[in-house]
Input
Amino acid sequence: MRTNATEVLESAIPILAKDRAASMQVIATRSGISRATLVRLFPTRQHLVQAMAQKILDDCDRALTRAEADIPEERGLATLVADYPPFAQLWNLVYVEPDVLGVPEASTRAETIFTRTVEFIERNQGAGLLRKDMPATWLASTFCGLAETAWELTLEGHMGSRQAPDFITAILLHGAAAGHGAER
Output
């Protein structure tokens, strides 16, 4: 049984992503804990959602820090893609959950993380790993959108968790065109 706040958050994030209207009772039941345990850890749904946002933002910070430190840039991009779930969660939950949007600190941190992601993309464009003819903001948004799609497909059982980074990398670097690399 999960009684650790971090474990509860890790199980609650996908529950809320799939069912934004999930009550505390539903979240507790699907997390495999009692409602009393959930309420002891997070007295209200707003406390739970804000703690989830904090965890997601912290995880994004750590993933970006690891990717930024992984030189050469090619390894950094692989590191960022391998650490994709918090970016999916950022896109899926933090930007759309009303209990988070009412907290200016969370919105400010989310914007800072996205700005860092754009700057990371720009460095990869400068290193010749990503197209320079596409705006970095668009590529950063594409990465987050692909991360969200891969995460959802993984949660629904349509994709294995080890397949997801390869999916993100293939689409981000090569698009969805058939015959990539073939003469046209």
